[in-house]
Structures are given as structure tokens and as C-alpha cells.
Amino acid sequence: MNVSRIYFSPTGTTDKITGQVAEGLGGTVKDYNITLLKDRAKFKGLTFNSTDVVIVGVPVYSGRIPAFLSEIFSTLKGDGTLAIFTVMYGHRNYDDALLELKNIFEARGFKGIAAGAFIGEHSFTEKVATGRPDADDLSMALKFGKDCSVALKKLESNGKYELNVKGNFPYKERSQSQPMAPQTNDSCNNCGICAENCPVEAIDFKDFRKVDAEKCIRCCSCIKKCPENAKAFNNDAFAKSVQWLMTNCTSVRKEPELFMLSSH
User: Fold this and answer.
1) Residues 98 and 65 sit within 8 Å (Cβ to Cβ)
2) What is the C-alpha separation between 81 and 59, in angstroms, rounded?
3) Chain segment 196-238, per-residue pLDDT in tens
4) Domain membership of residue 216 as a residue range
5) Cβ distance 14 to 40 under 8 Å?
6) Are residues 12 and 69 in the same domain?
7) What is d(CA 208, CA 223) in angstroms, rounded to the nearest whole number?
8) Is the pTM value of this prediction over 0.85?
């Protein structure tokens, strides 16, 4: 079994979950970390065959998968390639993201066998889904991978299977909000870690204090990775979003939702 792990993980949470799923699945794993722009450029147009199993992991942005990822995924090609789909959301809702991910890949020749929606600490604030994925989440992801391995062994080459996941089509409209970017304070020591880790290269490589608001996707990688706490969003719209999340998404602990194929 040739296992490939395809993941976009600006703050590391999707990486953790897909890593556990891959470990549970077993086999030799080839990683396609498409978090950085330079790596996504090399990823376009790849082909997978019927002996491959692909684990896909992406974060949820406002109930959808990131738009630029859907464009890249649409260049891939499978040939009856089995796939496991995972999305990571910040304790609000994953809405149509899992269905969207499944549909994109299945339209390209992949066959979904399982899917999961997992919870990660919200990129906007550590006060929502704090510290997740935690030990219980990682344990569940590992078991999910093992269950997928068992399911793979039971698959019949001529059997008819269908993977059903939550979501609606047409998908939820992508939210349109004003461009914004983190501001840089005087603690910045020009180490460049922020620019090196920005998934869309919104940070100027010659002046790390400058961030292009038109490019910024608010993944908060630069904020979480800065060793000097030199970057933060300092505007009313962002503050209102954080307050809404704290008011509406902290009272009840949500658990991962998992889906396995069924025969018919």
C-alpha cells in the first residue's frame, strides 16, 4: 500500500491529525506538505494510480476549504485512487467543507473511503478550542486510521460503495470581508520566521514588518510562530470576530465527526 499525505497546515493542527491518521493506516507514507506557495507550485498536476491511498487534510475557512486549494486540487488526477478526507475547524462549524473536499477529489478520479471533521484551536484566538487537537483528538485520529486500514482490507474490487458526509450543495457562499493583515510592533527583531512561514507570501521578504492585506488569508501562522509576539491583528472587525467566537463557540466541547463508506 502506497500512502500519500497531502496537507495544508499553517498553524500545525492539520499536520498533527493527518499524521496520526497516516500512522494508524500504516504503510510507507510520502508527504506532500502544500502549506507554502513554493511547494504548492510543484504539487500541481500530480497523478495517482489505483495502488495509492491518499490522505487529504485542509483547514476550514468560513465553512469552506480555502479557495486557492480547490483550484490546485482540481489539477490532480486519480485512477480509482482511494482517498481519506479530513478537515480541521476551529470549534464553530465545518459546514460544507468536507463535502466540498470529497466532491473535488472524486470528480478527479479518486474514491473516498472515509472522512473526518476534527477540531483545532482557532487560529484567531487561543481561547477557542484551546490546545486542540489534544490527546483525545490525536488518539481518535490514530484509531480512525486503523479503522480505515481494516476497511481497506475488506474492500472488494467489484463492490459498490458510497461515502456519505455532512454538507450541502450548493455550498455555503464564501464570506466577503474587508482585506486586513496583522500589524507589527517594535518587538520585531527581523528574524524573518514570519515571512518564511507565510502560505501566500504576503509578508515582504525585504521588510518583515510589511504585510500585504490583499494577499493575507488570516491563517495567523505569522502570529503563532513569531518568537517575539511582534505581530497581531489590531482592528475592530477582527476583534468583533474573536468576541463572537468566544461568546458562541466555547460553552460545549465538540468532538470529531467520522464517516466510513457503506456498501449497497
Assistant:
1) no
2) 22
3) 999 999 999 999 999 999 999 999 999 999 999 999 999 999 9
4) 183-234
5) no
6) yes
7) 12
8) yes
